[in-house]
Amino acid sequence: MAYKFIDNYREKGARKKLVELLRNRGIGDEAVLKAIGKVPRHFFFDETFWNQAYKDIAFPIGDGQTISQPYTVAYQSELLHIRKGDKVLEIGTGSGYQTCILLELGAKVVTIERQENIFNRTIQVLPGMGYKPKFFCGDGSKGIAEEAPYDKIIVTAGAPFVPEILLKQLKVGGILVIPVGDAQAQKMVTVIRVSETDFEKIVLDTFRFVPLVGDQAW
């Protein structure tokens, strides 16, 4: 399947407005805002819906999944405190938009998607845009032990609890960002591995994600 990528003045102007909206909503990390301003979000939409691409909303991408709201993407990205060269595990590739933001921040991204249809589409789209993470298809709730340890782990679906198996795959000093709650709403949770055996947990704002499905989730 061939993908046509057009990034014209109108879309660049829309991204600039989106960046200002996110700044006004409290996103203060300039590196994250710069990444949001660079990644062409309309490439993840059918051309029919390009007029929706730079609104601060989630949008369906098929198979019961969505491309996350830009504010949510920026919020999670900010919590990760990405440094250039960080090895990041992304659980829930989805459309690949969050993946691209992480790559723009300088991370080395390992990303896993459970839904085969979405996975097969995304592994074509991202390289066509010049983004080349390491792709996996499978149960992300178990992480990817063979690629561990990770500096950062981001979960882009709502989990019923923090899977212990993911904590084991974090480096000491590493950060896990995961939404935890029930089917209606989740609290964003940051977990920092402060030593081999100790973790610091911070519970933050309320969001609503599609469910994380897998052996260590729903």
From TrEMBL:
HAMAP family: PIMT
PANTHER family attached to this UniProt entry: PROTEIN-L-ISOASPARTATE O-METHYLTRANSFERASE, PROTEIN-L-ISOASPARTATE(D-ASPARTATE) O-METHYLTRANSFERASE
Keywords: Cytoplasm, Methyltransferase, S-adenosyl-L-methionine, Transferase
Protein name in the entry: Protein-L-isoaspartate O-methyltransferase
Function text: Catalyzes the methyl esterification of L-isoaspartyl residues in peptides and proteins that result from spontaneous decomposition of normal L-aspartyl and L-asparaginyl residues. It plays a role in the repair and/or degradation of damaged proteins.
Residues annotated as the enzyme's active site: S68
Subcellular location: Cytoplasm
Annotated GO CC locations: cytoplasm
Molecular function GO terms recorded: protein-L-isoaspartate (D-aspartate) O-methyltransferase activity
Family designation: Belongs to the methyltransferase superfamily. L-isoaspartyl/D-aspartyl protein methyltransferase family.
